Amino acid sequence: MLSEVLNILDRLYPYDGVCFLNHETPWQLLFATILSAQCTDARVNIVTKDLFEKFSTLESFAFAEIHKLEDAVRQTGFFRTKARSIKASAQILLEEHGGEVPSDIEILTALPGVGRKTANVIRSHIFNIPSIVVDTHVKRVSNRLGIANHHDPEKIEFQLMEILPKSHWIRYNQQVISHGRKICKAQNPKCGDCALKAYCKLTAGLKPATY
Question: In the annotation, is 135 catalytic?
């Protein structure tokens, strides 16, 4: 079943390596991913277009007046927390890492506002390290397909790491996010148009497990 699902995903969504969040530098992707918490990538890309013009260097973030940074990211929600996390992370990158974004997941998750999801985005898109990013789409689709059976993103990540071939980790992220946005929506999923419906618990009349 799993190999068939992966083959269908490969056919429907050929992996192109393109990141959904616009960026030119590793630290821009780091900050964009922090902003993406509880916010759509489309909205983040609108915000960062102006944000990265106003604050064009890592130093400009580190020494930014916090109220100006808050105003610049306000549209992403939770803007005060996000602004402080970005400013503090910029300072740590400059003071402890020579202005470079690290690849080690433990070091990344020690940065303010950076959890495993954000760290894995960096590891996969910047360093090409096989990593699984569990966002809302990956969580929903994986549970509906029975590939995962948990509510907690970190536990889903480790479930997927056990079952998926490592060669598919990065591409699975992009493919399932694309499928979740286009077909397997949270509300009113387009089950009739879904090429994976033969493997889905929703179309089988079963309730996907969430714990």
Answer: yes
**11 inside domain:** no
Find out whether 147 and 160 touch, Cβ atoms under 8 Å: yes
pLDDT (tens digit, 9 = 90+) per residue, 130-163? 999 999 999 999 999 999 999 999 999 999 999 9
Is 179 among the domain residues? yes
Does 41 qualify as catalytic in the annotation?
Answer: no
Among 10, 135, 152, 182, the one annotated catalytic: 135
Cα–Cα distance for residue pair 164/171, rounded to 1 Å: 11
Residue 191 CA to residue 158 CA, distance in Å, equals 27
Instruction: Looking at the structure, tell me whether residues 121 and 186 fall in a common domain.
Output: no
Compute how many other C-beta atoms are within 10 angstroms of the C-beta atom of residue 28. 20
Angstrom distance (rounded) from CA 116 to CA 134: 9
Q: 83-137, pLDDT tens digit by residue?
A: 999 999 999 999 999 999 999 999 999 999 999 999 999 999 999 999 999 999 9
103 and 194, same domain (yes or no):
no
State the residue range of the domain holding 31. 26-125
The three-point CA angle 185-173-87 to 5° equals 100
Q: Catalytic pick from 16, 117, 182, 190?
A: 117
